[in-house]
C-alpha cells in the first residue's frame, strides 16, 4: 500500500507572457521546424486576398471562460497581436503564414483544437514549402483520433521533407490505427535503423507483429524496444501477450507485473516546443499530474519548477517539486525545496511528512521522527506519518506507543495489511500484556486474509510460546507450524515447529527441527542473519535439550 498521499495542487496566477508579435520577433520564421520557408515572394495581403480570399479559413474566437485569468489574458493578447499583423496593409505572405501558424501553436498547446486547426490550415496554404504546419496539424488530428486526416497531413509533411523521421513514425502509427499494416511496417523498419528512434520504432513493429500473430517476431522487436527505452513501461503489456502466444506463461506473468502507462518516446523537437507555449499554473499542474501518473518524474519536476518560478509562494507546488526531485534521487535539491516549503508554511503536514521520509532513508531517524510528529500535530489523520513514526518507535523499543500508532493507521486504512502485521509485532514485543490483543488482531487479519503467512506465523508463535498460559495452545500451534513448514521450508518455519513441539513436551522432535534450522543457516552462510540469529537459534536448542520450552520475553 502506498502511504504517500496524492500530490495536491492549487492554481496560481501566472506571469503575463509575450504576445504573438513578441514570439515572432524572438523566434524568427525558422525557429520551430526542420524545413522553413524563406524564399516566398513578398506579396502583400491585399494582393493575396484579391487573388484567393476564399482560400483562407475564418479565424475562430475560442471560448476561454473556463480558463484561469492569466491564461485567458495571454491568449487574448496573442489573438490581438495576430489581428494587428493580419490587418497591416503591408503584410507579406510569409509573415501572415507565420502569424497563423504561431497562433495555431499557442491554441494547440492549450488544447483549443477547434481554434488551432484553421490556423494551421491557413499557414499550410500560405507557406507551401514549410513542413511545420502540416506536421503539427497531423499531430493535432492524431491527438483527436482523426487518423485518416492525420495520415494525410503527415504525407504532406513527408512530401515536403522526406527524411523527417518523427513524421515517418507518426504516419506509421496512424496507418496501424487504420489497418494499413504493410505500409506502416516499411516506415517503421526504416526508422529503426536510426539510433535515437530505434526504441519507438521497435515498439510499434512489435505491436504490428503481435496483431498479425507473429509472436516470436513480436518478442524480438519488443525486447529491443525495452533495451532501448527501459523506462517505457507500456512495452511490457504487448510483450506479455506475445509471450503468452508462445506459451511462455511465466514470462507473460513477469511482464504483466511490469506493465505501465509510459510509452516509448519519439524525440520530436516540434512537439516538445508546444509545451513551452503553455501558460498558467493550472495548465502546468495538469501536465505535471499526467506525467506523475506515467512515472515521468523528470517531466513533472520541470512543470513544478516552472510553477514555483511563476509564483514562489506556491507552497503545494514546491512540495510536489521536492517530492519529484526525491524520486529522481536528487536528495539535496529535494531537501532544499521541502525546507523552503516549511519556511513558507511551518505547519504543512505534507512538507513535514516528505522531508521526514527523505531524512529517514538517509538514516537521520531522530530528525525524521520529529517531522513525522510535526505532521501529526498539523494533521492527526495522516496515515503515512503515523506509520513511519510507529516504525521509529519500534526501533527505539517503545512497543506500546508503536502499537498505538500502527493502530491509527489500520483505523484509517483497514485494508493496509502491512500496518496490521506491524501492529501485531509491536503487541507481541510488549510481552504478556500485549498477547491477548495480538491474538485478537491476528484473528481479524486471518478472517480477511486467510492465507497470509506472516499473520499465521505470528499466531503460531503466540500459541506456542506466550508467557501467558491462557494464550498458549500447543496442538493448534503445531498444526499451524507444520502447515507453514510444508508450504515453505524455511528457517523461520522450522523454528516455529520446534517451538510447538517443545510446548507439547516433545523435545526430541523440537531438537531435530531446531538443529535443522541451524544447519540450514550454516549452509547459506551466517551472514544471512548475522551472529545474533545463530546465537538465538543455539540458545533455543540448548533449552530444548534441557527439556525446557521457549517463552517469548
TrEMBL record:
It comes from the Bacteria. Keywords: Repeat, TPR repeat. Pfam families: TPR_16, TPR_19, TPR_4, TPR_6, TPR_8. GO terms for molecular function: identical protein binding. TPR repeats lie at residues 349-382, 383-416. Gene3D superfamilies: Tetratricopeptide repeat domain. PANTHER family: LIPOPOLYSACCHARIDE ASSEMBLY PROTEIN B (PTHR45586:SF1), TPR REPEAT-CONTAINING PROTEIN PA4667 (PTHR45586). This is Tetratricopeptide repeat-containing protein. The lineage of its organism: Bacteria, Pseudomonadati, Pseudomonadota, Gammaproteobacteria, Candidatus Kentrum.
Amino acid at each position: 500500500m502506498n502511504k504517500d498521499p496524492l500530490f495536491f495542487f492549487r492554481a496560481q496566477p501566472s506571469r503575463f507572457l509575450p504576445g504573438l508579435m513578441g514570439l515572432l520577433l524572438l523566434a524568427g520564421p525558422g525557429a520551430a521546424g526542420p524545413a522553413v520557408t524563406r524564399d516566398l515572394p513578398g506579396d502583400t495581403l491585399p494582393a493575396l486576398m484579391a487573388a484567393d480570399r476564399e482560400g483562407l479559413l475564418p479565424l475562430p474566437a475560442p471560448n476561454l471562460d473556463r480558463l484561469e485569468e492569466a491564461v485567458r489574458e495571454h491568449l487574448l493578447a496573442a489573438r490581438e497581436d495576430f489581428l494587428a499583423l493580419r490587418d497591416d496593409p503591408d503584410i507579406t505572405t510569409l509573415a501572415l503564414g507565420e502569424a497563423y501558424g504561431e497562433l495555431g501553436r499557442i491554441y494547440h498547446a492549450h488544447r483549443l483544437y477547434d481554434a488551432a486547426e484553421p490556423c494551421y490550415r491557413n499557414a499550410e496554404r500560405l507557406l507551401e514549402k514549410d513542413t511545420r504546419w502540416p506536421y503539427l496539424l497531423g499531430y493535432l488530428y492524431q491527438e483527436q483520433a482523426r487518423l485518416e486526416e492525420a495520415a494525410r497531413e503527415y504525407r504532406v509533411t513527408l512530401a515536403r521533407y522526406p527524411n523527417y523521421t518523427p513524421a515517418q513514425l507518426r504516419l506509421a502509427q496512424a496507418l496501424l490505427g487504420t489497418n494499413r499494416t504493410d505500409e506502416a511496417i516499411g516506415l517503421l523498419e526504416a526508422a529503426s535503423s536510426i539510433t535515437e528512434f530505434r526504441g519507438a520504432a521497435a515498439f510499434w513493429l512489435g505491436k504490428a507483429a503481435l496483431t498479425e500473430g507473429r509472436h516470436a517476431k513480436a518478442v524480438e522487436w519488443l525486447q529491443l524496444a525495452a533495451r532501448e527505452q527501459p523506462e517505457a513501461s507500456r512495452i511490457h503489456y504487448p510483450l506479455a501477450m506475445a509471450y503468452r502466444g508462445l506459451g511462455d506463461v511465466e514470462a507473460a506473468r513477469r511482464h504483466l507485473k511490469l506493465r505501465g502507462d509510459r510509452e516509448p518516446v519519439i524525440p520530436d523537437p516540434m512537439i516538445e516546443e508546444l509545451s513551452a507555449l503553455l501558460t498558467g499554473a493550472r495548465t502546468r499542474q495538469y501536465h505535471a499530474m499526467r506525467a506523475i501518473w506515467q512515472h515521468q518524474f523528470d517531466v513533472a519536476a520541470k512543470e513544478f519548477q516552472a510553477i514555483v518560478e511563476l509564483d514562489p509562494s506556491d507552497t503545494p507546488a514546491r512540495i510536489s517539486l521536492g517530492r519529484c526531485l526525491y524520486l529522481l534521487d536528487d536528495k539535496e535539491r529535494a531537501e532544499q525545496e521541502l525546507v523552503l516549503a516549511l519556511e513558507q508554511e511551518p505547519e504543512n503536514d505534507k512538507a513535514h511528512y516528505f522531508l521526514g521520509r527523505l531524512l529517514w532513508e538517509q538514516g537521520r531517524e531522530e530528525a525524521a521522527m520529529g517531522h513525522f510528529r510535526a505532521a501529526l500535530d498539523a494533521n492527526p489523520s495522516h496515515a503515512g506519518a503515523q506509520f513511519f513514526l510507529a516504525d521509529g518507535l519500534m526501533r527505539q523499543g517503545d512497543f506500546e506507543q508503536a502499537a498505538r500508532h500502527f493502530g491509527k493507521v489500520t483505523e484509517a486504512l483497514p485494508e493496509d495489511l502491512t500496518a496490521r502485521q506491524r501492529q501485531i509485532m509491536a503487541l507481541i514485543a510488549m510481552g504478556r500484556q500485549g498477547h491477548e490483543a495480538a491474538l485478537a488482531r491476528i484473528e481479524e487479519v486471518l478472517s480477511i486474509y486467510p492465507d497470509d503467512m506472516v499473520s499465521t506465523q505470528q499466531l503460531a508463535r503466540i500459541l506456542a510460546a506466550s508467557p501467558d498460559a491462557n494464550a498458549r495452545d500447543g496442538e493448534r500451534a503445531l498444526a499451524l507450524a507444520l502447515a507453514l513448514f510444508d508450504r515453505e521450508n524455511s528457517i523461520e518455519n522450522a523454528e516455529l515447529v520446534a517451538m510447538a513441539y517443545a510446548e507439547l513436551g516433545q523435545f526430541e522432535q523440537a531438537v531435530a527441527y531446531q538443529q535443522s534450522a541451524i544447519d540450514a543457516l550454516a549452509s547459506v552462510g551466517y551472514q544471512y542473519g548475522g551472529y545474533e540469529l545463530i546465537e538465538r537459534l543455539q540458545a533455543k536448542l540448548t533449552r530444548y535439550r534441557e527439556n525446557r520450552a521457549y517463552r517469548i520475553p
